[in-house]
Amino acid sequence: MQNDTAFIRELAGLAPIIPVLVVEDVAHAVPLAEALVRGGLPVLEVTLRTDAALDVIAAMATVEGARVGAGTLVTAQDVKASMEAGSTFGVTPGSPAALIDTCLEAGLPLLPGAATATEAMTLQARGFEVLKFFPAEAAGGIKTLKGLGGPLAGISFCPTGGVSAQNAADYLALPNVVCAGGSWIAPLDLVNAENWTEIEARARAAAALPRG
User: Fold this and answer.
1) Is the pLDDT confidence value at 92 over 70?
2) pTM above 0.90, yes or no
3) Half-sphere exposure of 176 (CA within 13 A, CB side)
4) What is the pLDDT of residue 2?
5) Catalytic residue among 129, 132, 194, 198
6) What is the average pLDDT value for the chain, to the nearest integer?
7) What is the DSSP letter of 77?
8) 132 catalytic, yes or no?
């Protein structure tokens, strides 16, 4: 089975930034999603790093305009549970063959993680054209993406990991970057403080970032 590349490209094209979300309290899910959608960031990655994550995904999936996916997929159980919760796409930090097999067999559209040319080429051979470049800054950041752009012209990237308000525009200016993922839009302290106004403002600023 092939990955749904068209679906992933559609998602990547909806906004320049995908918020990477860590949410500890399901009561925050709906107002957080609403603030992000109002701010122009409809594609939401909920990381499976808290006990509430699956319930958060289910709650956010009810918000009009939100496109909710699960991040930090590392096991077959993660894939199954996130789909049952309502995820419409998945994101992995890396791409072991067994995990990719599970996602393909389950029919989950996927943004798989890659940090090297070999990993990117392996995923491309399996039908993936849009990849998560992770951990972006630690893996060489903009210089590495520029280097990959020539030989791997058919691959687009969503850099995540160290992308911030200060460097996001530089990443988005690269021709092989379709969007970027970042946690600065809705950091845990603002979420726990229920500061939806500030989160919406950050989302609006991120949604206005130009792409190359």
Assistant:
1) yes
2) yes
3) 24
4) 66
5) 132
6) 97
7) H
8) yes
Cα-only R_g, the chain? 16
Instruction: Please name each of the domains of the chain with its CATH number.
Output: 15-207 (3.20.20.70)
Is residue 45 among the annotated active site residues? yes
Q: What is the rounded average pLDDT of the residues 75-87?
A: 98
Distance (Å, whole) CA 57 – CA 33: 10
How far apart CA 161 and CA 71 sit, in angstroms, is: 13
Out of 34, 45, 143, 198, which one is annotated catalytic? 45
**Contact status, residue 171 vs residue 10, Cβ threshold 8 Å:** no
**Percent of the chain whose predicted confidence (pLDDT) is above 90:** 97
Nearest alpha carbon to residue 125 among 108, 144, 142, 112: 112
Q: How many CA atoms lie within 13 A of 145 on its CB side?
A: 27
6's tokens: 């068209």
Q: Residue 110: what residue type? A: L
CA distance 106 to 15: 26
- Convert the pLDDT of each residue in 129-163 to its tens digit: 999 999 999 999 999 999 999 999 999 999 999 99
H helix or E strand, kind and range, residue 133: strand 130-133
Q: How far apart are CA 7 and CA 11, in angstroms?
A: 6
Distance of CA 189 to the CA centre of its chain: 20
Q: Which of 74, 137, 147, 103 is nearest to 8 (CA)?
A: 103
182: DSSP letter: E
| The amino acid at 118 | T
pLDDT at 212: 85
